Amino acid sequence: MDSPMFDVVIAGCGPTGAMLAAELRLHDVRVLVLEREIEPASFVRIVGLHIRSLELMAMRGLLERLLPHGRQRPAGGFFAAIAHPPPEGLDSAHAYLLGMQHSVLVRLLSERAIEVGAEVRRGSAVVGLEQDSEGVTVDLSDGERVRASFLVGCDGGRSTVRKLLGVGFPGEPARTETLMGEMEVGAPPEEIAAKMAEVGRSTKQFWLKPLGEGIHQVVVPAAGVSEDREEPPTLGDFQQQLRAFAGTDFGVHSPRWMSRFGDATRLAETYRVGRVLLAGDAAHIHPPTGGQGLNLGIQDAFNLGWKLAAQVRGWAPGALLDTYEAERRPVAEDVLDNTRAQMELQSSEPGPQAVRRLLTELMGFNDVNRHLIGKITAIDIRYDFGEGPDLLGRRLPDVDVGGGRLYDLLHGGRGLLLDRTGHLVVGGWSDRVDYLGDRTVGLEAPCILLRPDGHVAWVGDGQQDLDQHLARWFGLSPGD
Ligand SMILES: Cc1cc2nc3c(=O)[nH]c(=O)nc-3n(C[C@H](O)[C@H](O)[C@H](O)COP(=O)(O)OP(=O)(O)OC[C@H]3O[C@@H](n4cnc5c(N)ncnc54)[C@H](O)[C@@H]3O)c2cc1C
Description:
Layout lengths: L4 E7 L3 H11 L5 E5 L10 E4 L1 H9 L3 H4 L4 E4 L21 E6 H14 L3 E4 L3 E6 L4 E5 L4 E9 L6 H6 L5 E2 L4 E8 L4 H12 L6 E6 L2 E7 L13 H12 L6 E10 L2 E3 L4 E2 L2 E3 L5 E2 L7 H21 L8 H24 L4 H13 L3 H12 L22 E2 L2 E2 L9 E5 L13 E5 L9 E4 L5 E5 L2 H12 L6
Helix pairs in contact: 1-4, 1-8, 8-9
The structure holds flavin-adenine dinucleotide.
């Protein structure tokens, strides 16, 4: 069969794959997204977008589109589900959590990817790959082969791409499993509320939440770790576990959907083998506590998109693509570690419960609360760009600039020079870096160079120094 040529093939149209496709399209990269499932998943799992992901959506003009589909909740109380109001000092215009259905978020992100020109092919799985110095040949489940300059595995925790590459996924296997499903419930609301309060005191992974029309989301610890994670639990498994924990099965019946998830924690040995990269759950998995996995994947995509586009367009400086793993791997390591800690704090054993009480006390100190919520919401990430002021490598909040908002200037996914001196220029880089000269910008630095992902690449006021940093991040200017 023919081998149509793309710049980038993405395996998987979950949140990570869809976000990456849209980012690549901002730079006119020819993208094919392959998604194994014919229909998007229909389950009503609610996920939360944390502050940094909301900021990224605002940077691409997508937030307005998401807001009507979600519910805003306070940004506090996420670390190990320790109930605490949000800390003071969350320096963001989007300091809340946006809860929304996973399937709706994936639909909106896929629609955006298609709208900006990505081709999304459903019912088509990646089953094989072969790479050489020129590109990657990808085998599809229907027997077709496609050719691309790069392949990115955004195909989830059981990633076929990762396995085909032979990349190890070391870490800890699941020790516990939780059943999760949607079903009708016979018991009256008062009985459910009373049992939830009673059982919830010692077991955190237990709830029955009304979803409307008599359907409840039911979550209860499983009896053990299943041999075959692909095999869904049965209604009998739910009834047995509800009785074991609450003394009643609440008359659950007519399930719509049933699933299980574990607390396995794993990190891919590498994020890149030649022309094939990994992002999202394909690169890292951890328990859902704190609600960080999807956020981490979206942020991987945001970090990778412009770098891979630069590589495809031919202006990427030598090591730019490798900075993806160098920057994102430590972030994933930190998330894996904080979820390990959160899982311990949710154990019903007396030791961890005592530590939980102590930490609950400590969170009364605003700095402690702020530090932990900063981790969960990813607003304190500082990439290592070498020696420099504290701002270097950090995000900039959505400050007022030139009579508008900073993030509105980042919709195109280009770099941006914020010049308070009015005497610097982006010169030959103007095809990939925008310029705003504004003496009134409320920043504590004379000039700032922002990467397309909103991280500070340079702080200073000298043209020569700026040119060196433009070349470091945006390659040689076309005139050179
Ligand atoms: C109960 C629960 C609650 C959660 N809550 C939150 C939360 O509140 N906040 C949060 O940030 N995270 C949460 N998560 C984690 C989050 O769901 C995942 O981290 C996120 O979905 C990962 O996105 P992804 O795109 O990387 O992978 P996935 O969502 O797994 O998407 C991968 C896609 O690839 C497709 N695919 C697989 N194999 C192939 C193949 N060979 N070829 C082509 N396509 C393929 C799949 O069909 C799928 O569509 C939760 C997880 C669970 C289990």
